[in-house]
Amino acid sequence: MESISKGLRGSNVCKSHEASPVIPFDLVIEILTRLPPKSLMRFKSVSNVWSSLICSQYFTNRYQTVSSPAPRLYIGLSFLDNSHLKCMLISVSPSSDSDITISSFDAHQDLTKRAMRGYITHVFRGLMCIVDEASAQIYNTTTRQLVVLPKIEESSIIAGDHVNKNIKYHIGYDPVQDRYKVVCTVATTSNKVGESITYLSEQWVFLLGGDISSRWRKIPCQSSHFPLTQELTIKGHMYYLAWIRDLDHLLVSLDTSSEEISMLQAPEDNFCPITVTLIECCEKVAILHYIDLETEGMMKLWVMEDAEKHRWLCKTLVFQSSQVDLFNKIKLGVVGTTRNGEVIFAPLDTACFYIILYDLQKNHMRKVEIKETPNRHLTKFCEAAGFDDVENLIYL
Known about the structure:
Layout: H1 2-10, H2 25-32, H3 37-43, H4 48-55, H5 57-66, E1 72-81, E2 84-93, E3 101-102, E4 104-108, E5 119-124, E6 127-132, E7 135-140, E8 146-148, H6 156-159, E9 165-174, E10 179-189, E11 199-207, E12 217-219, E13 226-227, E14 232-234, E15 237-245, E16 248-255, E17 261-265, E18 276-281, E19 284-289, H7 293-296, E20 298-306, E21 311-318, H8 321-327, E22 332-337, E23 342-347, E24 354-359, E25 364-370, E26 379-388
Parallel strand pairs: 3-25
Antiparallel strand pairs: 1-2, 1-26, 2-4, 5-6, 6-7, 7-8, 9-10, 10-11, 11-12, 13-15, 14-15, 15-16, 16-17, 18-19, 19-20, 20-21, 22-23, 23-24, 24-25
């Protein structure tokens, strides 16, 4: 940062004419951290010094501590335009936390680029993961930068001819080294041993923002398993539910700093892969099973109270008839949780423009409509892709 500071003091960008005083470096940073991301992206072209400052890890971290962006729900739209199928990514956000209707939106036209292919798996700290078969792309929702990750050429499972092949990508954050990583878990079913089903799996890690020679690194794992849920990141650890043999469950924990994988005992229950997800509940890992949500108005919630003692607390959530009427037996999927701890449910396989927010602590459910959406009448498919409240200036 010292070289950037000297560059700013000696550059013409801080002087309107010869007699003008030089703006102190600390004051420049304070001013820039209070500007919207669109302005910062334009100011990168002012000079190489300004570009280096705005793209630096120091400024990125400082900006996240100062800025307070509104929470945003990212939605993918598929619609017919002159008989051609097109896609668009939009973000919607309420004007205040008390609003029950989301009305504002910003259209991210970048999704219509040909280079952006696949389906969105999740959004994490301003970074979006897009997967297309065995490849992945990372999209910065703030800077609009799109990076295509290299394929994992050394994976024997990806290269092999397997019928049941499972490939999952997830973005994680290493708080020790202050860097982002993408973790890929590749798994498949192995040959049956008697009546038992076994699995083969591999874990790979890719460092975001590395040099051009960056590549996937394979990390060791003590037990092969088959991922059942998408990963969840909490306090430098990534978690996901998996089958280890037959249909026995366990909770996999990956330390994003040390890259060590641990196997934790999961609750003894039969989980349906389609209606189970990991969520954060009071800063703890929780398993939400909502197989009976649409039909019986019930869900089960397990919260991990003590990982070392394998202690889980179970709670059955029962909805009132008025709450059940909100989704009217429409199949729902979990998008994520809000900063207030509400679980976000969104309709599946439909073009309905609404979400359902459920407060786990208060057992309160409310329906939130999304209005003023572009191409509303042309939309054939609408999918809530993720929820996030971070503006990330990191250069990938």
